[in-house]
């Protein structure tokens, strides 16, 4: 039996690490899935990002936990950030957790709880300080009105809890970076990380929110990995159905961050043209692969083999970060690609192997889109199974009748054009 409590140090303060079962099936024997509580401060309520931030200290997980774990994950469901009938709702992360609880997975899954929110300096490496402080000040209006819209051109909303919950979601990524990097120093097979967080982040531009996104969670983590851990070369793979314009904008002229996005051609927000390749010193380190409507598993298998893997092998990253959007699923209401559960399993398995070959296994996924709760939760669960080398459940979950023939000619043309532009 595992001990119920263990003590360890997190951000300089001792506290008990609680171990609890996360993956359970009602009526079955409790699974020993371990959860380590990384308490960052006694109480974050009422704290102001405008105040002087205390520098974050290195997260010290117990070495034996890091050696045993095969997945590290954090959840930040942002339950207070919610709008009735909005697709980006507070039901998304709980739906994923519910799906995980129904599966009999390996016990080597470690949840880090009560982690620190991102501090001002972390977020300000990506977003302007005027935006950060302006959003904090807007919380009083949100408190009075219940809900406000914070983006002039789209349905990005805020409630009175949005500011703190968005900082916490960004902090989840930072915590996972610390933990995965620490694990990579202990052995050759560090666990993969997954930030199950919302609001999503890849549309949030340096100057403000956009497309349901408040802070660029993956962009904040990328800069943190560079500044805190000296991981100079960061590769970001974004397979959300929509182009990650915010992430792209943040690093468009940066030669040390390679941003690669596959997305549906012509979808929101209309950015991510195939000939957008970066500028200045960053020319060549942005790769966009817009896919035609109806693209699915065939398209992504070709894209991985012919574009994603060769790009990573040439770039030689120190860490791979993934904007994992599940809205390209055939059942998702907000777009027109036809990925399946099996597509996401293939991507997770392939990216895991790529990270193992190129950067010592250092890899962290970040939840982005996905608005059909059933396809979202089952696809994330199958992603976990891929990380654990468990067989996919896609055959049980995917109905072939929902699919139609992919536009293979257009897919091949898009891939060949991207390969030509980037000399792959």
Layout: helices, strands, pairs:
Layout: E1 5-10, E2 13-18, E3 34-37, H1 63-68, E4 71-76, H2 92-101, E5 109-113, H3 120-124, H4 129-145, E6 148-149, E7 157-158, H5 162-184, E8 192-197, H6 217-229, E9 234-238, H7 245-251, E10 257-264, E11 286-291, H8 297-315, E12 319-324, H9 341-358, E13 363-367, H10 373-387, H11 394-397, H12 408-421
Parallel strand pairs: 3-5, 4-5, 4-8, 8-13, 9-10, 9-12, 10-11, 12-13
Antiparallel strand pairs: 1-2, 6-7
Helix pairs in contact: 2-10, 5-6, 8-9, 8-12, 9-10
Protein name: Histone deacetylase domain-containing protein
Domain Histone deacetylase: 86-385
Organism: Panicum virgatum (Blackwell switchgrass)
- What is the CATH topology? Arginase, Chain A
Q: In CATH's first tier, which class applies? A: Alpha Beta
Proportion of β residues?
A: 15-25%
Helix fraction, binned, reads: 25-40%
Q: Please give the oligomerization state of what you see.
A: single chain
Assigned CATH superfamily? Histone deacetylase domain
Distance between the termini: 52 Å
Give the domain tally.
1
